[in-house]
Amino acid sequence: MSLGYAEKLSYIEDVGKVGMAEFFESPRILQEKVGQLANMIRKSKHMVVFTGAGISTSCGIPDFRGPKGIWTLQRDGKALPKAALPFNRAMPSITHMALVELEKASILKFVISQNVDGLHIRSGIPREKLAELHGDSFLEVCSSCGVEYVRDFEIETIGLKETPRRCSDTSCGARLRDTVLDWEDALPRKEMDAAEKHCKMADLILCLGTSLQIKPACNLPLKCLRGGGKIVIVNLQETPKDKKASLVIHGLVDKVIAGVMESLILHVPPFVRIDLFQIFLSQAVSSDKRYMNWNLKVESVHGNRAPLPFVKSVEVSFVDRQDLKAAVLDKQPFVLKRRFVRIVEPFELVLKINFIDACRCRYAQIKIPVNFKVSRKCPQYDKEAIYQNLREAAVQDSRCGQYEVIQRKANLSPKYDITVYAIVTNIATYDKAVAKASSEGVVCNGDAKIKSESLMCNSSETDNKPLRFLKRKHRLTHSPKTANKQLRLLQPKSRL
């Protein structure tokens, strides 16, 4: 979990058992149990997965109760672990992406998560097939109309408090609230109802990386037993529900799930992270009518009060305009202002947007023609098709940095231009990790060759070369649309 999240929680003395011993099955027993689990999944008609912090430790997010968990270290008076990377840049694990593939294959029917890291939504689990019992550090909701907003930054508060932003629906405009629970907060009724419904329907509930201690969430898997369902627990520590389970596997969750996917002959899909930012250009006559003011902003799509967490700095230069001085913007908000004594003639602007170290893409170089004398056409963009094309290109090229325009708005009076860009900033592939698990005898067929030592993240090596702009046709590819239309991945009507 996020260290920031742990610090925001109200203090309570009793957080349950911590620092519990970890157990590891022998390679032979682990292989047998993975085979049993794969067979149970094959026979299942309604499988539900119940996840805890253990599925995210391989993402660089520490758990709470393990030997090096946050609460364990606090109890022992030891320093808390340092985050391997910013919380908002955590990448989904093998397990996260395997669940995405199982859902697409209609094997997995529903996911119940106690985690607040947002990695299930980020990995691609449909919102209507996910119950986040304790909330999501990257999700805020309108307190009036219920619209949800997924952000690329960690929400500032927890405890269902109001945030600095408002609903972008012009007919609403109510204040937004965070969704993460504090200790005294009740579990959200909507999430609990969906979780209970699917647990009662389930013939198999797979509990992954959870100590099953926090009530009432830990009792949800038991609801399948009355209808003849079975419980499988994959966790390194013993849990209070082990005796109720048909199968208990003490092993690393990623290793177990990699073995299951190999046995089921299913591919763990790559994860491609696409981030959004917008460029705002404006021009206006000064109040005394003597000057022409020109402004540039590189900002978040989530509103003018929102941070742009993946951008480190912006270098601004002008093509064939010696009278316009270049600039480096190294502090947020990234704003450049210029004042002219005459009408600004058309010119070309070059932006080199430098990303933080946690991004596999180091920079993007974008050329922008600036001409407020003519009206720019603002076509309708098929965002889903663009996202799909970007993902396919990133996987095919095994690199990051591809970008496309996904939205544009221009106006002549007052003069402004807003362009939203989508860029691939991270990519992770998992085939080599799955093959490694197979080579170690985790799966039954065990005939895959070793490909790599660990999960691989590919990145562009062209540090000094501008990243290429994709000029693909926006052909519509198959992309199932979420049935939950209350979920919005960005705020298109950001207030500037």
Report on this structure:
By secondary structure, this protein is of the alpha/beta class. The chain folds into 2 domains: 3-137 and 180-269, 3-Layer(aba) Sandwich (Rossmann fold), CATH 3.40.50.1220; 272-429 and 458-488, no CATH class. Helices cover 19% and strands 26% of the residues. It contains 9 helices and 21 strands. The chain has helices at 3-8, 27-43, 70-75, 94-104, 119-123, 189-201, 253-263, 383-397, 431-439; strands at residues 47-51, 108-113, 130-132, 139-142, 148-150, 162-166, 175-178, 204-208, 230-234, 247-249, 271-285, 292-299, 311-319, 327-329, 334-340, 347-355, 363-370, 403-412, 415-429, 456-457, 487-488. Strands 3-2-1-8-9-10 form a 6-stranded parallel sheet, with helices on both faces. Strands 11, 12, 15, 18, 19 and 20 form a 6-stranded antiparallel sheet that branches. A 5-stranded mixed sheet has the order 6-7-4-5-21, with no helix packed on it. Residues 443-496 have low confidence and may be disordered.
Summarize this structure as a short list of keywords or feature phrases:
6-stranded antiparallel beta sheet, 6-stranded parallel beta sheet, Ssirtuin_cat_dom, 496 residues, 2 domains, Rossmann fold, 21 strands, metal ion binding, nucleus, alpha/beta, histone deacetylase activity, NAD-dependent
Strand and helix map with partners:
Layout: H1 3-8, H2 27-43, E1 47-51, H3 70-75, H4 94-104, E2 108-113, H5 119-123, E3 130-132, E4 139-142, E5 148-150, E6 162-166, E7 175-178, H6 189-201, E8 204-208, E9 230-234, E10 247-249, H7 253-263, E11 271-285, E12 292-299, E13 311-319, E14 327-329, E15 334-340, E16 347-355, E17 363-370, H8 383-397, E18 403-412, E19 415-429, H9 431-439, E20 456-457, E21 487-488
Parallel strand pairs: 1-2, 1-8, 2-3, 5-21, 8-9, 9-10
Antiparallel strand pairs: 4-5, 4-7, 6-7, 11-12, 11-19, 12-15, 13-14, 13-16, 16-17, 18-19, 19-20
